[in-house]
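worker-03 picked up job from queue 'complexes'. Input manifest follows; two sequence lines, order preserved.
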Amino acid sequence: MTLATHPTLSVRGLTRSFGERTAVRGVSFEVSPGELLAVIGPNGAGKTTLLSMLAGVLAPSAGEIAGVSGRVGWVPQRPAVYSKLSVAENLRLFARLEKLPDPEPAVDRMLEQAGLRERRDEQVSRLSGGNQQRLNIAVGLLCRPAVLLLDEPSSALDPRQRERLWEFITNLSRQGTSVVYSTHNVFEAERYADRVMVLGDGELLFLGTPAELGRVVGDEGAADFEAAFVSFLRGRGH
Amino acid sequence: MRWLLVKDLQILRRSPLLVTMLVIYPAAIALMIGFALSSPPGKPKVAIYTGVKAGHGKIHFGTQQVNVSHYAQELFSSVAPLHASSPAAAIADVRNGRALAALIVPAGITQQLQSLLQNGDGNPTVQLVLNSRNPLERDLANQAIQARVDEVEQAVTKQVLKVVVRDLQQVLSGGVVNLLGQNVSLLGLRNVRTIVDGTIASLPRDSKLLPALHQVAGFANLAIEGLAFAGPAIGTVGTPLTVQRIDLAGRTTPIASYAVAIAAVVSLMFVTLLLAAGMLALERSENAYPRLVRGLVRPEALLGEKIALAGISAALLSLLLSAIVSIFVPLQWDRFELWLLALIAAGVAFAAMGVAIGGLAREVSTASLMAFLLSLPVAFIALIPSTAVSGAVASALDVVSFAFPFRAGLQAVGNAFSGTAPGMAWPLVHLLVLGLLFGGLARLALRRFAVA
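worker-03 finished. Artifact:
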């Protein structure tokens, strides 16, 4: 996918330090409408810190986030919903807190979109991990965001649940929502992302398509994408 | 804030065990306090052996007699008596746990008392055998019996003194005395003096009888003056000191109202701290806090919602407790609006403390444990009477109590219940200041609330 003229998200020189340690250092990139951008990297690379700054949960030490046309939806790694409430009650609560003028249609829309209509009155604690994550994402989508930020959305799911989740996310992308997601699973980056961002020790090491990443490390004789990714990191001292 | 409140109420509704505990706890406390305040003290079981046969419990003193058996019956009414057939049986009752104590009255007690009253000889003694295994029960039995023995002693003394004073009066003024069923006229010292004075006046000035009669008249005068003082003086020995009670600064808080106020504030504190700390920490445990504060809700509003939820819920529960207790203990219902004001003010201050605990602890289980562990010493320190410890310790306890809402809450609620000094204004201001300080501490704690 090529970048559109008007990006939904534009980031310049984003930096975040915790005391002496710099978790994210001078990261710049843009995201176009409907684009799926995967953020990958080893543990401690700065993926969650980057997404937290994009979500507004964490203030950057330097740099700027601009050009967001529309609101940013944020889906933290662990489901951020109330386990004692039902699916519909959670959606209704967050719709009201989002100050949506008419919460009920938004609730119905998200139940439909997340495939949870038949579970609407079920208490969240009784849902499977996959359904909890879909509800988690649905809450993030209530305000119809132009950009959806997902922090390791599939980390706690089994393969079947992961498959259904990615179907849901790619549908969102097709409908025009930009999706930025972090993942440990490089196959998810290769398979679903339009572009891949590789972070190492808070620095942007690579930004391009999965195929381009493959080409960058292709000469090193890697057997598959994961091996190419590991080889790429090793070659840059990570 | 309204929707967060609705959400928290929904969560509470789906936590029936927690809600049941929160409702049952103050209700159970209320019933216990009510029963304890309205029930008469229990009577300890006392094995009693008396060697005095029926009808032989009278002590004769001059022309009067004192029935000691009458006072013994009063002693029996203050304990649950188990009549024993012998001293050994009474002691066995204590040994095997049937009785907390044994009271052994020897057969010769009446004669010993008689001898003491008539001749000043002897030391009439009853034996009290106590079970020393349980110190609390031992003290209960000892106090019940000792109090009654004191009453009997005082009653007998009073009766004897009455007889003495009356006999002295007869020696002084004369009268009719019954001796062996016969009424005998007693002359009396005053009459003796009158007769002697009359005789002296009727004799010639050179009569040889005059010096002797003047001696008799002088003795009569001295005796009359002395006995005139002796009567009232002896009468006061039975009750040498009268205590006149004066309460300063208007009415004092009745002990029953004070006990109800303590129960209400302790319940309020437990419920509020646990609810406020737990519900705030739950936002983090559910991972919802970062999502809420990224534009949906301001942290101050979130704290305000938790304080309102916990403070008002606990105030209503304490009100329920007070209403239940008022079945047993009279409370001033015409001051109901002040009850409500005091309970809500205390509830809000405790809730602010609760959210500070929740913000610092961050985990629900840690927050609940911290709230519980803090509650006990906070209440305990505030309830220690300043006279029970040294001046320096009392000052230190005052400072600690001042920093927490318990003492101010107790003053406000106690005053609301009874309408006594020192008034509610200062405790309410104190609670307000503490609420703001703890709220500020909670706000600071939220700065690191979402950090993993």
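worker-03 released lock.
Chain A has two domains: 1-70+146-238, 80-145.
DSSP finds eight helices and nine strands in chain A.
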